[in-house]
What does this fold into?
Amino acid sequence: SNTHAAAVTKIRTVQREKKLERFTKNFAELAAAGDQLVTDYDCKVMHQGVQISGNIQLTTGHICFVSEGLREIIPLAEVLSIQRSIALKTVDNGPPFIMSIPHPNVIPNTLQVFTSKMQLFQFLHIESSLEKLGGALSTVNGSPFERLYNFVDHSWRAATTVPIPGQAYAE
It folds into this structure.
């Protein structure tokens, strides 16, 4: 119905404004330099063996993560590889065991980002705030993970030459 469509549009607009506000508040220097927010998802990042809840914010030039007490900025030009991966629970309730997809039938749930500065960023539990409000509000195909992966991959390829010249890649 038109009422439902109008309500969904309003919720999406409010969500988009919230995400833009979070970006400009936490990454003012990027916003001032002209970086545009592409997308924003709730997620967790591995930090010193601990899962930290926050938001991954992808811009035209950076992958950003923000939470209470943690702020990361990863220039897309420094990204060497983006890997669809899987996080497995461990027997001791410790940090998950994260590995690249071992077989095409395995559904990925973790995004690993490797940089030219020898850094590894691991993003897991990727969720859409709209989908948390209710599946009926989401008309977009694919899981939040798959959508984020596609956004990151396309933004990375638009921001730099892929593969990165002069870098050794596994065959």
The chain has a mean pLDDT of 88. The beta strands are 37-47, 50-59, 62-67, 70-75, 79-88, 97-100, 110-115, 120-127. Helices lie at 2-26, 28-32, 129-133, 144-159. The chain is about 30% helix and 35% strand.
